[in-house]
Design brief:
heterodimer, A: about 300 residues, mainly alpha, MetI-like fold, 2 domains, two-stranded antiparallel ribbon, B: about 325 residues, 17 helices
């Protein structure tokens, strides 16, 4: 009996060793290229980094960099607040949009594969540098202006905006909604992966549930909220986190641009580290908080 | 013919009458829904495709067409000059070969390493497994920009435990060479590598363990089981991760700018295109002139098209691999 237990322990040990061998590239890479730079940049954020010819020497100076970033730097606070509110609003819009599109694409109709392929296209075409170029495309902006001028007040959204504005209903909230509607292209191109994830979730729901609900007299609208929503609620969490992260790493993110500018053009490594740490901690706190809130509403079927 | 039709129609109305109006209502409902759906989807597809179509039409226009208010989408003076100019400015023929080689090797390296790690996480139990997996999640979460300044210095004064300093008396400057990025990719710290590990692990976890156990019982070693049994099973997810790695590397600006700045790549070439256009025109005319916005955007559109054409071709052939395997990977929290 004892012998057998020993042998099992030996097998487990062997498996543990091979497990560690398998993940050893990650451990090495993590320690060398992630943990060390992370700690170093944390340390640097408290320092004034002087760049020499053959070395760099950080001089400890306390939280001066943080104070500088928040109180002296003219842009940083504003960019931070703007970027985080933009992130929240757009992430929400992206989730709603992709859920909606996934619901439509889950139905059966002709040309579904084509439509799916088109919706997934932006994942490939609007990544990296191309996205940054897309946003400051002045030709398009100029074109848009001409169109608006020639077709003044024909735009439905503009007319609606005017009506709601004069009615004076919750003006500020509506401003944001209109902003999103005007930038629906940004939302659409950022939601490729999310649509696919939702679709995969929708396809795992067995149709017998819907049938049972329909026989019991459940309308489509009710079964959307009572069956579809709970069944894929865990995917909302996945998508939410993915969207937020994706948004933070976009190349047209203004905070990131600011940090890069401080680092590369002004050579203030300490300040750049401090700025990126503040940003990182805020994002992490935001993701943590929102996932806790969302995971309360997540329903696990099995 | 008409008779048959009438008969059919009659039978429809007949059936409708028998069902108490339900059939007609349902049919009308369905038609309405599909019309609405068509309009919505058509609009959204157009929204996504329009910029590309717009770029195609702009890229064939001469400068005077850009200012001509009558010309909207079909150029009056058809030209391919823009392509030639953009190709020259981006150093296209060289950049595309570079980009291709780098993206391909990086993608292969990243996916090979991520597969090993993902398999390790999916199938083995070892102490501190949860901790290391939390580290993977952290890698996904940490924006690379947070550590960029420190990585920048890390490779500027590169050293392994002070060995080089001992031998040569100074650290090595690895900036501007390709090596750092290969090192990082080898350590799963490249672009979005945490995500690939996560996806691959998820996929391996969904494969039943029976086959592996059978292999173990038959005396197959761990590594051989992995290579002979598990890898062929995981082909779909590996293909799609590979395609993503390739495509994202192709268009990536951040890592390319940081580590591969001196190598001419399509992505960095595109990012610099407007500046190099300004320099080019200045060289041509000899005076300091600002390039008109319309013209520089026209060249930019052409350049963008030239970069995404290989990707579009890839997507046309591998569309299924891109879309299907993500939906099969069964992502759950």
């Amino acid at each position: 009996m004892k012998k057998q237990k020993n042998k099992l322990a030996g097998l487990q040990k062997r498996k543990a060793i091979s497990g560690y061998l398998f993940i050893s590239p990650f451990i090495l890479g993590f320690l060398v290229f992630m943990f060390k730079p992370l700690m170093q940049s944390l340390w640097m954020s408290f320092c004034n980094v002087e760049l020499g010819a053959a070395s760099f020497n950080p001089v400890f100076q306390g939280i001066d960099n943080y104070i500088y970033a928040f109180t002296v730097d003219p842009e940083y606070n504003r960019l931070l607040v703007e970027e985080i509110t933009r992130m929240m609003i757009y992430s929400l819009a992206i989730i709603v949009f992709s859920f909606f599109v996934a619901l439509i694409l889950n139905q059966k109709f002709k040309g579904r594969a084509l439509v799916r392929a088109i919706f997934f296209l932006p994942v490939i075409l609007s990544s990296g540098v191309i996205l940054g170029l897309e946003t400051d495309n002045q030709l398009m902006a100029a074109l848009e202006q001409t169109i608006e001028q020639t077709a003044s007040n024909v735009s439905i959204t503009a007319a609606l905006e005017n009506i709601l504005r004069t009615a004076g209903v919750g003006v500020r909230a509506f401003e944001k909604v209109f902003e999103i509607i005007d930038n629906i292209y940004d939302v659409a191109i950022a939601s490729g992966i999310q649509i696919i994830i939702f679709l995969s979730g929708l396809q795992t729901i067995s149709s017998s549930m819907y049938e049972a609900a329909e026989i019991e007299g459940c309308t489509k609208w009710e079964s959307l909220w009572k069956i579809t929503f709970p069944m894929i609620s865990s995917l909302f969490l996945v998508n939410w986190i993915y969207t937020v992260i994706d948004f933070c790493m976009r190349s047209d993110n203004e905070v990131i641009e600011k940090i890069q500018d401080v680092m590369i053009s002004q050579m203030k490594y300490g300040l750049a580290s401090a700025m990126s740490w503040v940003y990182f901690v805020l994002i992490l706190a935001f993701i943590g908080l929102s996932s806790v809130i969302i995971s309360r509403g997540v329903y696990y079927y099995d | 013919m008409t008779n048959a039709k009438a008969k059919e129609k009659k039978s429809f109305w007949e059936r409708n009458r028998l069902s108490g109006g339900y059939l007609l209502k349902k049919k009308m409902m369905n038609t309405g829904v599909s019309i609405c759906r068509f309009i919505l989807l058509f609009g959204m597809c157009f929204l996504i495709l329009q910029p590309i179509l717009n770029k195609i039409s702009v890229s064939f226009m001469t400068e005077e067409d850009l200012y001509n208010p009558i010309v909207v989408s079909i150029p009056e003076h058809f030209t391919t000059e823009n392509y030639l100019l953009a190709a020259e400015l981006m150093n296209y023929s060289k950049a595309i070969v570079n980009s291709f080689v780098i993206s391909l090797t990086i993608a292969v390296l990243q996916i090979a390493v991520c597969t090993l790690v993902g398999y390790g996480f999916a199938r083995f139990n070892f102490p501190l497994k949860k901790f290391w997996f939390a580290c993977v999640i952290m890698v996904i979460l940490i924006p690379p920009q947070t550590i960029s300044s420190s990585l920048f210095l890390h490779f500027r004064f590169f050293d392994v435990f002070g060995i080089f300093k001992l031998i040569k008396g100074e650290t090595i400057n690895l900036r501007g060479s390709v090596l750092p990025y290969y090192l990082m990719s080898g350590g799963c710290m490249g672009l979005k590598n945490g995500l690939y590990i996560f996806l691959i692990r998820q996929f391996f976890r969904n494969i039943p363990v029976d086959m592996e156990e059978a292999a173990y019982v038959d005396g197959c070693g761990t590594l051989k089981t992995f290579v002979c049994i598990m890898l062929p099973e995981a082909k779909p997810i590996l293909t799609s991760c590979f395609l993503f790695a390739f495509v994202w590397q192709w268009t990536d600006g951040f890592y390319s700018k940081m580590f591969l700045g001196t190598t001419s790549l399509v992505s960095t070439g595109l990012a610099r295109l407007v500046d190099s256009l300004g320099a080019y025109i200045q060289r041509l005319t000899g005076t300091l002139t600002t390039v008109s916005i319309a013209y520089s955007n026209c060249i930019l559109a052409t350049g963008t098209l030239m970069i995404i054409v290989p990707l579009i071709i890839l997507y046309l052939f591998a569309q299924r691999a891109f879309v299907e395997s993500i939906s099969n990977s069964g992502i759950k929290m």
